[in-house]
Design goal:
- InterPro entries: Bact_response_regulator, CheY-like_superfamily, Sig_transdc_resp-reg_receiver.
- One of its GO terms (biological process) is phosphorelay signal transduction system.
- It holds the Pfam family Response_reg.
- Helices cover 47% and strands 18% of the residues.
- It is an alpha/beta fold.
- The chain has a single domain, classed as Rossmann fold (3-Layer(aba) Sandwich), CATH 3.40.50.2300.
- It has a five-stranded parallel sheet, sandwiched between helices.
- Helix 2 runs parallel beside helix 3.
- The longest helix is centred in the N-terminal third of the chain and has 13 residues.
- It starts with 5 loop residues before the first strand and ends with a helix.
């Protein structure tokens, strides 16, 4: 049986989390959610995810700070996608500069484009896996 890609959706809006969870579950993903940056960071540190979709504006810890902390931790190797809204494009640019793979405007979100990008990021084989396979093949 083929393994499912693992997706973490971090957004303080419950309705948004539920819509994304249902959409990506229907597309064959294993989906978990978090209601704020603190919970999202904890889940990223203690579980393996292929991709995290992160809202910028959240209570307790905003998306930029959560991503900054996640990407500086060796235990986190999920690709990050940021969701913007409320005219926070400057913050989206800042997010891209710290390692976010893509950003989408929540107000004009095209789910087909988001799905395409999530699939592209999830399908990437980590370099550590490639090295391990090559090492094993040489034996």
């Amino acid at each position: 049986m083929e393994s499912q890609y693992k997706l973490l959706i971090i957004d303080d809006d419950e309705e948004t989390r539920n819509i994304y969870r249902e959409f990506f579950t229907d597309e064959g993903f294993f989906v978990d959610t978090a209601a704020d940056g603190v919970e999202g960071l904890e889940k990223l540190l203690h579980n393996e995810f292929d991709v995290a979709i992160v809202d910028i504006k959240m209570p307790k810890m905003d998306g930029i700070e959560m991503i900054r902390q996640a990407l500086t931790n060796d235990r986190v190797d999920a690709s990050m996608i940021i969701l913007t809204g409320h005219g926070d494009r400057e913050e989206a640019v800042q997010a891209v500069n710290i390692g976010v793979e893509a950003w989408f405007d929540k107000l004009n979100l095209n789910m087909a484009q988001l799905l395409k990008r999530v699939n592209e990021l999830a399908e990437v084989i980590p370099i550590e896996t490639v090295r391990q396979v090559l090492t094993e093949a040489r034996r």
